[in-house]
């Protein structure tokens, strides 16, 4: 005596399974449509979830900043100091001077003042070599060039007070004259340009 299934039970269970599958398929389609319609970008979701700034939220943010700011302030100051030292070293390297001398060459004519001082130092070295038995032409060049460097330094200081367009023109002229002096200096040092 075995158990037999009724034919009616088989049909109803098959219908129930088919109905469940159809419902699942419809639910999946509906979920995909809803996701495509509303969740197209993360920015849309973030905009909808962001809450407006209220008085209580502002008070809470101020309270948190009062606690966090004293903790982070020393690190921020240290980072600012390191960045400033690096920036000063970069500017000093561009001018060709020591970072401790950077304040002497500040302002619009700082680069020309730095070039003038470097040429003056080179003239001192050239003249000291000439005194050791080198050619008198080098010593004569150094003696004749020093007053010209003083005149150029005065011209740079005077041009700093000029309007921008005139100052640029004056700086180009001073730079050209300084370039010629540097070329002559290199010639006297035995370096061909």
Task: Write up what this structure looks like.
The protein has 193 residues and is mainly α. Helix content is 79%, strand content 0%. The chain contains six helices and no strands. The protein has helices at 7-38, 42-49, 55-95, 110-131, 136-159, 164-188. The protein is elongated and about 115 Å long. The relative contact order is 0.05.
Helix content estimate: over 70%
Biggest sheet, open or closed, and with what strands and sense?
none
Low-confidence residue ranges: none
| Rg from Cα | 41 Å
Number of strand elements: 0
> In DSSP terms, counting alpha (H) and pi (I) runs of 4 or more, how many helices?
6
Rounded average pLDDT: 82
Distance between the termini: 119 Å
Choose one word for the global shape. elongated
Secondary-structure element string:
HHHHHH
- Structural class, by secondary structure, is mainly alpha
Estimate what percentage of residues fall within beta strands: under 5%
Which secondary structure elements does this structure contain, and how are they paired or packed?
Elements: H1 7-38, H2 42-49, H3 55-95, H4 110-131, H5 136-159, H6 164-188
Helix pairs in contact: 4-5, 4-6, 5-6
Short description:
The chain has 193 residues and is mainly alpha-helical.
